[in-house]
Structure formats: C-alpha cells, structure tokens
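Below is how a single chain appears once it has passed through the pipeline. First comes the sequence as given, then the structure the pipeline wrote out for it. We keep one example in the README because the format questions we get most often are answered faster by looking than by reading.
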Amino acid sequence: MASKARDLSRRGHRVMATAMTEDSITKTHVGLGNVANIDLSNVTNESKATMFSAPTFTGTTHMGNLEMTESGNYWHTSSNGYANSGVWSAEIYFTNGVSNQYVDIIASTNTFWTAGVLRLHSTYSHANQSGYNRRFDWAYCKIGASQYANSFQENTPGGMGVASSHFSVSQWAYDSGNSRHYMRISKGASQGNSAYIQLYLDQNAVTYLPLISLGSLST
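Resulting structure:
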C-alpha cells in the first residue's frame, strides 16, 4: 500500500484538503486577518430596481450644476460667479378672523444685489382664493440704503385665478434698524387663507438664497 501511495505522489497526485463551507471561511482565508470585524447585521439587500426609488439624501446634493440643500426650502445652480439662479419656497397661513395681517420675506444681508420673480398662490379656505396665482417681477440692487436699481411690477398672464385678491405684495425695502432687506406680503381681509410663496433669484442665488427666511405673521 505504501508503495502505491509513493507511486501516486510521483505521478503528480496531491491529497485534497477538506472542503470549506461558508461558515468555516474566516477573514484570514481571504487575506483580511488584520482587519477589524465589520457588523453587517443591519444591512439589507437592495436591487437596482428599488435602491433609487425615493432615496433620501443629506447635506448638499449635486447633480451636474444643480445643487440642492438639506434644508429643503431652496435649491440653486452651483455655477460660480454672478450668473446663477435658484428658488426659495415657503407657506404661511393667515389667521382667520384677523384683518390687516402681513408677513415679510427677509434677506439677512446688508448688500442685496439681484433680480428675480415672486410667485404667490392660494386656495379655497375661509374665503375663495381658488386658483389664485400672481407673478411679480423685480430688480433690486442695494448696498445698505444706497440704491442702484429698484423696479417692481406685476406680470400675471390673463389675470389667473380669482378676480378679487385678498393679498398684496410690496417691493423690497431696506430695514436700516436690522441692516437687512424685506419684501412684504399683506392680507387685508379677515378670512383665513394659506399663502404659498416661491421666490426665484436670477442672479447671485448661491450667495443670497441661504440668507432668505420668512418672518412672523404680524398686524
């Protein structure tokens, strides 16, 4: 028997190792002996068909020259320099039973040098503002109280929505006490309605959109 074994060895036969199973393979077997253990117990299998269905991103997301922020109320193109654009949005409810309320869109900067569009929408609530959709174009270039451009006009095609509007919008103005600029949205009637606001900046959006906020409802 020993002679036969030696003969097989000479012919190039080798003794086979014990077959390994997935449970017997260790990180040393695959060259990762010095790597700490990784816990994958919370990792779930995903297919390409479901992996990108309604994903949630955090921080700042870039897609080409489009940049979206985690704050969720504005986005802008990420082009450098003066010519970049974006939009900021907000919603506020004007309290029912209170007349002459207003809210300010605030740009918390002393220098505000841009142009753009405000779009204001509403729906039916305590008063019929169904389909209310107004567009206001503006240019506003100021360094503090020093004015270089200030124009404002409504450009609503065909009087969209209800004919009688409870809302009014005023051009940007400078708040010298707080060194900032504001655009005021007012509602004279006492019936409660929501206002949906979209503020488009056609210039310097990267600089200014992070500085835009909505003030408190006031009378």
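Residues 9 and 15 are 9 Å apart (CA to CA).

See the next section for the split statistics.
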